[in-house]
């Protein structure tokens, strides 16, 4: 426990350093908000074919500018959406990213990946791919609202593996698939994926319209215990981990993933939205006061250097519960994407869940 306390205090000091000396490490690019699915839990409420497409010329000029101001090898470009493969210039953009020297990855629902696309992405140096699988077949298809999407994800895994690309599966656990976790684990083992990233459904985006999907406190603790059990099981053939979101309380920190929690929004994570707006983590509610600029008129590098003030300050000063919390130093208000900017408090707090469980 002393080692954990020491490490988290060092990380808290490093967070304060990053607020003054931000280090761009991940640049997320929302290529489009079009999507061929319409998932009940979508954090950005994407869906349909009439959405926006990021201007290719603007993006490529911005990436050239970023490459000229940062060391490209140290900045991971993450292509996402919506469904990024719906961008008509996806492969041209990927080729330019590679030629500029950036490592790159993609987050996708997987339904559009066939053998040809997998081989083209491999040839363009795709470094990582994250697919979504949120339950067994009936449950996944119901959440994604497109029949057959489950089988297309499994096909995508096969195609990517055949092309020599490693795969991470992300599964969002909600009230409807909580009972399927053991069977999902066995399925992940059978598919041979390199990593299984398990996360809780978040009270953001379209999920706010479906509160029945949110986990109870008991289920949340059950999810964390499940991940810890599978992560350290001797026969687990893959990395099992919780996502990057959320301070997991003193009890679970560093138990469920390789690193201690730190919200990277605006200190090592930036993004470009499909309309060109410069933003932080893509999961954060799209609020006008949080938009930092637009690549049509602003230098991304200059905005990264001089902007993002709202993400580089101590917001826990605004929340009484946070100010009174003994773990405030380590949590720092938890993930920005679940911060209530209207009421200045977290919408979701695992530390509170753990305290309630212990008091019962």
Highlighted features:
single chain; 360 residues; alpha/beta; 10-stranded mixed sheet; two-stranded antiparallel ribbon; 12 strands; 36% helix; globular
Topology readout:
Layout: H1 2-20, E1 26-30, H2 56-69, E2 76-80, H3 90-100, E3 104-108, H4 115-123, E4 128-132, H5 137-144, H6 149-162, E5 167-173, H7 181-191, E6 195-200, H8 217-231, E7 239-242, H9 249-252, E8 269-272, E9 277-279, E10 293-294, H10 300-306, H11 320-323, H12 328-331, E11 339-340, E12 345-346, H13 350-359
Parallel strand pairs: 1-2, 1-8, 2-3, 3-4, 4-5, 5-6, 6-7
Antiparallel strand pairs: 8-9, 9-10, 11-12
Describe the structure in your own words.
- The chain is α/β, with parallel strands linked by helices.
- The protein is 36% helix and 14% strand.
- It has helices spanning 2-20, 56-69, 90-100, 115-123, 137-144, 149-162, 181-191, 217-231, 249-252, 300-306, 320-323, 328-331, 350-359; strands at residues 26-30, 76-80, 104-108, 128-132, 167-173, 195-200, 239-242, 269-272, 277-279, 293-294, 339-340, 345-346.
- Strand 1 (26-30), helix 2 (56-69) and strand 2 (76-80) form a beta-alpha-beta unit.
- The model has no long low-confidence stretch (mean pLDDT 94).
């Amino acid at each position: 426990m002393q080692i954990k306390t020491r490490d988290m205090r060092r990380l808290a000091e490093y967070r304060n350093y990053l607020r003054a000396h931000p280090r761009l490490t991940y640049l997320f690019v929302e290529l489009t908000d079009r999507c061929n699915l319409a998932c009940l839990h979508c954090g950005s409420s994407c869906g349909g074919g009439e959405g926006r497409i990021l201007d290719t010329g603007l993006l490529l000029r911005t990436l050239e500018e970023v490459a000229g101001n940062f060391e490209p090898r140290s900045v991971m470009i993450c292509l996402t959406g919506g469904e990024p493969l719906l961008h008509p210039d996806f492969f041209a953009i990927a080729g330019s990213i590679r030629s500029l020297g950036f490592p790159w990855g993609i987050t996708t629902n997987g339904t559009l990946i066939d053998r040809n696309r997998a081989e083209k992405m491999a040839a363009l140096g795709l470094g990582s791919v994250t697919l979504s699988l949120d339950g067994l077949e009936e449950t996944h298809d119901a959440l994604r609202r497109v029949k057959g999407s489950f089988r297309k994800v499994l096909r995508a895994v096969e195609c990517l593996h055949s092309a020599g690309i490693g795969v991470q599966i992300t599964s969002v656990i909600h009230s409807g698939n909580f009972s399927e976790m053991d069977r999902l684990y066995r399925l992940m083992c059978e598919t041979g994926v390199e990593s299984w990233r398990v996360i809780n459904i978040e009270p953001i985006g379209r999920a706010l319209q479906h509160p029945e999907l949110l986990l109870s406190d008991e289920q949340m603790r059950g999810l964390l215990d499940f991940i810890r059990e599978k992560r350290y099981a001797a026969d687990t053939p893959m990395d099992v981990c919780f996502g990057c979101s959320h301070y997991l309380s003193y009890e679970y920190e560093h138990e469920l993933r390789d690193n201690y929690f730190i919200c990277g929004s605006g200190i090592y994570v930036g993004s470009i939205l499909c309309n060109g707006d410069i933003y932080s983590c893509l999961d954060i509610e799209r609020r006008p006061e949080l938009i930092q600029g637009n690549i049509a008129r602003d230098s991304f590098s200059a905005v990264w250097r001089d902007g993002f003030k709202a993400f580089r300050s101590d917001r826990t000063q605004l929340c009484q519960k946070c100010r009174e919390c003994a773990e405030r130093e380590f949590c720092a208000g938890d993930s920005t994407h679940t911060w209530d900017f209207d009421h200045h408090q977290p919408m979701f707090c695992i530390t509170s869940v753990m305290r309630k469980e212990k008091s019962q």
